[in-house]
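FYI - complex with S-adenosylmethionine, inputs then prediction.
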Amino acid sequence: MTHEPGTPLAELIDEARCLLGGDADAMVDIRSLVSQLAGLDRARQLMELERLLPSATAARLRSAFERRAAGEPVAYITGFKPFWRHEFLVTPATLIPRPETEHLLEWALEKIPPQQALTVADLGTGSGVLAISLAIERPQIQVFGCDLSRDALLVARENESRLRADAALPIRWLQGSWLGMFKPESLDVIVSNPPYIRPDDPHLAIGDLRFEPQSALVAQDEGMADYRQIIEQASTRLKPGGWILFEHGYDQANAVAECLAQKGFQTISHRTDLAGQVRNTAAQRV
Ligand SMILES: C[S@@+](CC[C@H](N)C(=O)[O-])C[C@H]1O[C@@H](n2cnc3c(N)ncnc32)[C@H](O)[C@@H]1O
């Protein structure tokens, strides 16, 4: 029996550099693909350059490098993206969760004290990152993970089954548009990262956004259409005293706050992301 010698890791990394360039961003992508597809963490990648990778692994990596060179996001190639404390399955049916959205989660957790059995809706749940992280951090609450997209909800359900411990998580998945399926005064907290990019925004033709679902990214009315609809519906679906917390674009804080104020919301406040951009707004129904 003959044994295939395999391909040295160093050779594959050189090939990847030729395809993707050797700058810092390209190296982050290369390291991440090797880590997830060959099971070698960064330290081993640095120390085991002579390691021979079997032909199936080498082929998988070469295909991944080519897909990345064609612009496909790393998360769609590997199928996973870390968020908060877990790795979430993502597909082209879901937005790739962004680190900024962890700020929205953190703020929502401050509004949901441990032990308080509140009812919470995550509107536009996508891969389920917010709904599932909330349910894991606050198992006493009832969470509704809602989305218009059936395919996104299938991914969210899959993430729930992968990430739940022995007991089921307190989540119900609902397909429908925003708050249409909720009764008046039925929710204590609403979190949402809805589509907010203007249809003519040139960023839609650049980078990862080219591969993500338009239905998760784009909103009419200067990117404000979905906020207006959610805020209108939330003004009756939230219980008095209930909170709504949004993620939005860096230049939409004033427009979102104005819309909230017009519908009678109070205690309107904002938070910035690590880059100092105002990316979250929260308000309370009186
Ligand atoms: C920006 S993505 C957010 C995904 C996820 N929450 C996250 O932060 O990674 C917006 C989500 O809203 C969903 N969506 C778009 N229009 C909707 C509607 N009318 N009702 C409910 N969900 C909608 C999209 O399918 C998409 O999953």
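Residues 24-38 form the longest helix (15 residues). The longest strand covers residues 238-247.
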